């Protein structure tokens, strides 16, 4: 089955929409496909400087970068990494 739209076309559509989720999706695509970086910045800048700045913020978001890295690992069959959070404590947490 052939994709309906290529990656560059999807980046264009997402940037044209310009919402927060669209920018996050675009950044995730660029992080997964680094060859799209310059083109995505060029497209964002064509719409507005503000949009290009917002895309750069998402591209630098460490949580998104970790999420993309984790999805790469799971796609390759690696076990999921722990989130880095401490386990939940049981009880009220007060000494008796």
What features would you describe in this structure?
With about 100 residues, the chain is an all-alpha fold. It has a domain at about 5-75. It has helices at about 5-15, 20-30, 35-45, 50-60, 60-75. Helix 2 crosses helix 4, helix 2 packs across helix 5 (about 60-75) and helix 3 packs antiparallel against helix 4. The longest helix has 14 residues, at about 60-75. The radius of gyration is 18 Å and the shape is elongated. The model has no long low-confidence stretch (mean pLDDT about 85).
Write the layout of secondary structure elements.
Elements: H1 7-17, H2 20-32, H3 37-47, H4 49-59, H5 62-75
Helix pairs in contact: 1-2, 1-3, 2-4, 2-5, 3-4
Give the low-confidence spans: none
User: What is the helix/strand order?
Assistant: HHHHH
Helix content: 55-70%
Rg over CA atoms: 18 Å
Which structural class best describes the helix and strand composition?
A: mainly alpha
Treating each run of at least 4 consecutive H or I residues as one helix, how many helices?
Answer: 5
């Amino acid at each position: 089955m052939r994709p309906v739209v290529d990656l560059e076309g999807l980046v264009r559509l997402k940037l044209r929409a310009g919402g927060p989720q669209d920018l996050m999706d675009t950044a995730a695509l660029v992080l997964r496909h680094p060859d799209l970086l310059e083109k995505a910045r060029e497209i964002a800048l064509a719409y507005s400087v503000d949009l290009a700045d917002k895309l750069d913020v998402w591209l630098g978001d460490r949580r998104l970068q970790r999420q993309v890295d984790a999805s790469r690992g799971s796609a390759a069959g690696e076990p999921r990494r722990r989130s880095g959070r401490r386990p939940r404590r049981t009880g009220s947490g007060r000494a008796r």
